[in-house]
Amino acid sequence: MKTFVYIDHFKGEVQPASWEALGLAKTFGTATALVFGSGLDEITKAAFEYGADEVIVVDDSALTDYRAEPYASTLSALASSSTPDLILFPTTARTRELAAMSAVDLNTGVLTDVTKCEMNGEQLVATRAIYEGKVLEKTVCSGKPVMATIPARAFPKPEHVAGKTGTLTKGEAKTDALTTVQGYSASESAVNLGDAGIIVSGGRGVSNNPSLGLDEAATAKVGFEMVGGLASLLGGAVGASRAAVDAGYITYSHQVGQTGKVVSPDLYIACGVSGAIQHIVGMRNAKVIVAINKDADAPIFKVARYGVVGDLFAIVPALTEALKKKWGSKFSDK
Amino acid sequence: MKIIACIKQVPDSEAKVTAADGKVSWGDAPLVINPFDEYAVEGALQQKEASGGTVTVLCVGPESAKDALKHALAMGADEAVLISDAALAELDTVGAARVLAAAINKVGGADMVVFGRQTLDNGAGLTPAQTARVLGWPMLGLAGQIKVDGGSVTVERVIEEGRQTVSAKLPAVLSVVQSIGEPRYPSFMGIRKASKATIPVWSLADINAAAPAAIITRTELMNPPARETTVEMIAGETPAEIAEKLADKILAEKVL
Ligand SMILES: Cc1cc2nc3c(=O)[nH]c(=O)nc-3n(C[C@H](O)[C@H](O)[C@H](O)COP(=O)(O)OP(=O)(O)OC[C@H]3O[C@@H](n4cnc5c(N)ncnc54)[C@H](O)[C@@H]3O)c2cc1C
Ligand SMILES: Nc1ncnc2c1ncn2[C@@H]1O[C@H](COP(=O)(O)O)[C@@H](O)[C@H]1O
User: Fold this and answer.
1) pLDDT at A329
2) Mean pLDDT in residue range A240-246
3) What is the ipTM of this complex?
4) Residue A65 — very low, low, confident or very high, per pLDDT cuts 50/70/90?
5) How far is the CA of A112 from the centre of ligand 2 (A)?
6) Do A237 and A229 touch, CB atoms closer than 8 A?
7) Binning pLDDT at 50, 70 and 90, where does residue A100 land?
8) Taking CB atoms and an 8 Å cutoff, what residues of chain B touch A180?
9) Which of A40, A128, A303, B215 makes a 20 to 30 Å CA pair with A318?
10) Contact assignment for A288 to B250 by CB distance below 8 Å
11) Which of 47-86 (B) contact A at CB < 8 A?
């Protein structure tokens, strides 16, 4: 089987699930990585090192900023001329649009957020979650090429072999942009929850500590500093409930749940999060869930592996200390 | 300005959804407007308030979906149309996009079409860009803020890496996210108006569209493997003692 893998990147940073997609492609046969943009040497080199047999580079100043229309047209043209069986994408804001549009051009379909792929003869059968993960479906795509997006951490990352090379092909850019990028501001606290192996989250509880004698916002700031301290000790990311985001304690990019990010880390520590269904659907696939909450009846304990009924302002710093003491030296190696 | 919002009806997110006999079942849980699409209606209404004009809401779905359209009317939308046809029972996103594009053309004269970010049921998040592609209009996805100025629109796009300001000429297709602002509650007057409204139903013939062939099909439906979650509560005399025990448990899980 011949697979195209779209390598998604932004300002020179590749979304790591692109490499996971490349690894998945290799299990089916040959993999051709597609790298679009301008100034792409580093990314091209990395694509070979993560296992691409071929890299098609479309390096053109018209593609410097990602825009859905020219990227989709470029992809559709390449797919029409080289007829891959499958095109894989990491699931990101960009690829949802890009794959969506190319599927219209090529009269095929996109299987989104696929967490398992099997071959049934010649046909790819993809498993994906629907209804917020309450049920799973197996789906097939009768169009060609089959297109699929994969979430971060669903498939193993392939080995990185320094210096590995392969066939380099140059492709032609389409320049039918309909939008103009005026500017960009990085999130104050860049966070990539999807790729995080460890997430420590704060909920509305981070603002509840009358003994500090501070107002709500200042208390929440102290609370999130504690949450952040534990996260950074563990080399993890900071998550949040929607209540914490809506109250302005932290930015939306940290929100876990139905209207935020769906995450699947190895460890998820929820601090002062009640565990509303809309939060649970975003984190229940975590391998180990730890909940710290004042209220013994909080629903978060229903999905947790370990629970502590207590004040996060006491437990979180104590846990940080305990972990530092027991494993401090190992953490600093990471 | 003529604004169109596209909405879907889905089972309430509190519903217990299961796979039973190869079908999705949500018991007697209510069907509601897709929560992400409430933001779409909110975004459309904000633009109407800013620039004047009308908001028309479109939904492709069964007769029951009129309730979701009525919710949008109660929020303040001016008109609602249901696109319903026996040939649309199995609809994938490319199919939905082709049908919506035909309906948008039939409404005619739209300056802006606003979508939600994704549906709760299918969760693909593909339909907005696919509709834009079929129409040949620019796509401004994941807008957290919208500003119209003469014949063009500028949005602040909320992406993984931060916020990006992107503009395009109207007409354009947008999808919106939560930062647009909390969807307004239907007013008492709105609810009264909506309950009296008759919602026109368009068939495929009415919008001059052919029945789209399903490209994506489901072959199997499953309940996720039951999760063994017996919670182990960690207690102790002092926070330090609890933390000590919890740290040991976490370390033993080998997830660090
Ligand atoms: C359509 C829709 C979409 C939604 N999407 C999301 C989403 O994506 N993500 C999301 O998270 N929510 C979402 N929600 C909101 C969700 O329903 C809840 O309102 C929200 O998750 C509650 O956040 P919380 O747990 O932080 O706050 P609360 O429910 O107020 O819980 C705070 C918890 O903190 C505990 N606590 C208080 N003080 C302390 C302390 N000092 N120490 C320890 N514990 C303490 C309390 O016992 C309580 O359990 C959505 C809702 C809707 C309707
Ligand atoms: N049947 C439908 N009728 C009207 N709008 C729809 C329909 N399905 C999807 N949409 C719109 O497209 C968005 C994305 O849907 P999806 O691609 O299914 O995740 C939704 O948030 C709606 O705004």
Assistant:
1) 56
2) 96
3) 0.93
4) very high
5) 14
6) no
7) very high
8) 166-168
9) A303
10) yes
11) none
Is B133 in contact with A104 (Cβ distance < 8 A)? yes
Residues in chain A: 334
**Which CATH code for domain B2-202?**
3.40.50.620
- pLDDT, tens digit, 9 for 90 and up, residues A255-287: 999 888 999 999 999 999 999 999 999 999 999
Work out the minimum CA distance from B79 to partner chain A, whole angstroms: 27
Locate tokens 């994704």: which residue? B118
Pairing of strands B172-176, B112-115: parallel
Cα B251 to the center of its chain, rounded Å: 41
Q: Which of residues 136-155 of B touch A (CB under 8 A)?
A: 137-142, 144, 154
8 A C-beta contact, residue B162 and residue B183: no
Residue B93 contacts A, CB cutoff 8 Å: yes
Residues of A in contact with B23 (CB under 8 A): none
Residue among A287, A318, A316, A284 nearest A301 (CA): A284
Residue A190: the pLDDT is 62
For chain B, say whether A229 makes contact (Cβ under 8 Å).
Answer: no
CA distance B239 to B249: 15
Ligand with minimal distance to A279 CA: 1
Residues making up chain B, counted from first to last: 256
Ligand 1 in contact with A295 (CB < 6 A)? yes
Adjacency order of strands within the sheet including A110-111: A110-111, A146-150, A86-90, A2-6, A30-37, A54-59, A167-170
3-class secondary structure per residue, A17-31? HHHHHHHHHHCCCEE
Q: How far is B27 from chain A (nearest CA, A)?
A: 13
- Provide the H-helix boundaries in A234-309: 242-246, 277-283
* CA dihedral over A89, A77, B103, B95, signed as positive or negative: negative
Q: Is the pLDDT of residue A334 over 70?
A: no
pLDDT digits 0-9 by tens, B51-76:
999 999 999 999 999 999 999 999 99
Residues 10-49 of B with CB under 8 A from A: 11, 13-14, 16-19, 24, 26, 35-36
Percentage of chain B lying above the pLDDT 90 cut: 91
Per DSSP (E only), the strands in chain A are 2-6, 9-10, 13-14, 30-37, 54-59, 86-90, 110-111, 114-120, 123-130, 135-141, 146-150, 167-170, 179-186, 198-202, 237-240, 267-271, 288-293, 306-309
> What residue segments make up the domains of chain B, in order of their start?
2-202
Contact A183 B244 (CB under 8 A): no
User: Mapping DSSP to helix (H, G, I), strand (E, B) and coil, where does residue B59 land?
Assistant: strand
